[in-house]
Amino acid sequence: MRIPTGRLSRSSDFKTHIVIEKLGETDDGRGGFTEVWSRVGEFQARVEPISAQDRYMAGAANDDIAHKITIRWPFSFTIESGMRLLIGTREIAIKGVTNVAEANRYMEILGTE
């Protein structure tokens, strides 16, 4: 599953615009709250369907994981499970995040639609 860092160095590898969102709460004005998704960042990404071998290599027990999204390392915030990403109108739930080669250059995100 590890991608050599030199293989993704061209900007043409990152063709898909994605938006990362985090779930939060806002006051509903009646003593309760409403859950609201708020935008935390936007990226150009490489989006690939994930194979059964990639799932096994990632140790993903969830067979629903269907996408591997690679982005350049986000220095301004943390991406974690429980967030979601948008590809146009498609919503992808983030299930796992990997720092590729632990080099803080690229991040792989595993997700379900």
General description of the model:
The chain is mainly beta and 113 residues long. It has a single domain (17-112), classed as Bacteriophage SPP1 head-tail adaptor protein (Thrombin, subunit H). The protein is 6% helix and 50% strand. The protein contains 1 helix and 6 strands; from the N terminus they run ββαββββ. The protein has one helix at residues 52-58; strands at residues 16-27, 33-49, 67-72, 84-87, 90-99, 106-112. The protein has a 6-stranded antiparallel barrel. The longest helix is centred in the middle third of the chain and has 7 residues, at 52-58. It is globular and about 50 Å long. Residues 1-6 have low confidence and may be disordered.
What attributes characterize this protein structure?
single chain; 113 residues; mainly beta; Thrombin, subunit H; six-stranded antiparallel beta barrel; 6% helix; 50% strand; disordered N terminus
Broad structural category = mainly beta
CATH H-level superfamily? Bacteriophage SPP1 head-tail adaptor protein
**Record field, number of beta strands:** 6
CATH architecture: Beta Barrel
Q: Over the alpha carbons, how many angstroms does the gyration radius reach? A: 15 Å
Q: If you average the pLDDT, what whole number results?
A: 84
What is the end-to-end distance?
Answer: 20 Å
Strand order of the largest sheet: 1-2-3-6-5-4
